[in-house]
Design brief:
Elements (H helix, E strand, L loop, with lengths): L1 E4 L4 H6 L14 E4 L1 H9 L1 E4 L18 H9 L4 E6 L15 H17 L2 E6 L3 H5 L1 H19 L6 E4 L10 H15 L8 E3 L2 H4 L15 E7 L3 H4 L21 H21 L3 E6 L7 H17 L3 E4 L9 E2 L4 E2 L1 H7 L6 H4 L1
Parallel strand pairs: 3-4, 3-10, 4-5, 5-6, 6-7, 7-8, 8-9, 9-10
Antiparallel strand pairs: 1-2, 11-12
The structure holds beta-D-glucopyranose (BGC).
């Protein structure tokens, strides 16, 4: 994204990254990428480490990410990971809402290995269900958890990004979320004045909810949206979804109208970003393994290429579970999905 400046004043000139020239008359139009847009570009093509640390405390959802996986993820061409963590299960229920050291140590290790592998990391607070169900009761706790995380990671480089809360929904309406997200940003800023913070709209980070998102005047924000449209295709057969979608089978995807729908929705997000001067990160998209593989591949390729053509970064949902681009049993990438995500991956030649 570019910032266009047509100002003659010193402050505006500096804000636009220009050499300060104070004078009269218009200065030439200068286009320069904002720090947030540059940071978003560095997220590039990313992968969610889903079904791992966002499982409830003590539960195992079948994914164990090892150090070698992080290296492999980088080697095939991903530039970033998103690390969903259910921090709310690792903080005390009562003040001072202390986050457990053992969990912090575990996350520290992953962050350091990811960084050493050359990956940028979006550290996310995932499945804080209390905040969605009763925002007022959890507001303070949400803030204090973020204050602790921010203090812990304040000295980390700009390869680490914070994402405040995955998919606000339920009682966390746009109005409530717009207020609470400010608390989150304020909790982070004293220890991390310029850290990139990722934040998305209510209704599960839905693109249609972007018009209701109100952000503070902070330049170092990246806006995230999740893309699972059409839901009847991407979530067919998904046991965790209530209602008829879980019994849909064999639904294919890829008619010209369907392609247009996906492109149109992402286009809306890009347009919102352009109008509000915010870079957009498609922080989750994916089609569950019950959907026909050929259609999954076509849909995945369409979302990834469309997002890229609109200047957005993305993170595929997810690494090695039900949507997985990696098969943990066979210990190999699912090549058609990997090719759809990263056309120039180094393993491609061997599959052609
Ligand atoms: C949820 C996952 C779910 C995925 C796709 C994520 O945000 O946390 O549990 O599998 O969306 O539905």
């Amino acid at each position: 994204m570019f910032v266009f400046c047509r100002r003659i004043f010193l402050r505006a000139s500096l804000a636009c990254g220009m050499v300060a020239i104070v004078g009269i008359g218009p200065v030439p139009v200068v286009a320069q990428e904002s720090a947030a847009a540059a940071a978003n570009r560095r997220l590039g093509r990313g992968l969610n480490l889903g079904n791992f640390l966002e499982a409830p405390r003590g539960a195992n959802w079948g994914v164990q990410v090892e150090d070698r996986h992080l290296k492999m993820i980088r080697e095939v061409g991903f530039q970033s990971i998103r690390l969903p963590v259910r921090w709310s299960d690792y903080a005390s229920e009562q003040p001072p809402y202390r986050v457990e050291k053992a969990m912090l140590d575990r996350v520290d290790h992953l962050l350091q290995v990811a960084h050493a592998a050359g990956l940028n990391v979006v550290l996310n607070h995932h499945h804080y269900q209390g905040l969605d169900a009763d925002p007022d009761a959890h507001r303070e706790r949400f803030k204090v958890i973020w204050r602790q995380l921010a203090e812990r990671y304040g000295h980390y480089g700009d390869w680490l990004y914070f994402e405040l809360h995955n998919e606000p929904h339920d009682k966390l309406t746009a109005e409530k979320w717009n207020a609470i997200l400010r608390d989150g940003i304020q909790a982070v800023r004293p220890s991390n004045p310029t850290r990139m913070i990722v934040v998305g709209p209510d209704r599960w980070n839905n693109i249609r909810a972007l018009p209701d998102l109100r952000l503070p005047d902070d330049p170092n924000l990246i806006v995230t949206v999740h893309m699972y449209e059409p839901f009847q295709f991407t979530h067919q057969g998904a046991s965790w979804i209530e209602g008829p979608v879980r019994s849909i089978r064999d639904r294919t995807w890829g008619t010209p109208e369907e392609v247009e729908q996906v492109q149109g929705m992402l286009g809306q997000a890009a347009e919102w970003g352009r109008q509000h001067g915010r870079p957009i990160y498609v922080g989750e998209f994916g089609a569950y393994s019950k959907a026909p593989l050929e259609s999954r591949v076509a849909w995945t390729r369409t979302v990834a290429r469309t997002a890229e053509s609109l200047g957005m970064s993305w993170a595929y949902w997810e690494f090695a579970a039900g949507f997985g681009v990696y098969d943990p049993q066979a210990q190999r990438w699912r090549q058609p999905l990997l090719d759809a995500l990263i056309p120039d991956n180094p393993l491609r030649a061997t599959s052609d």
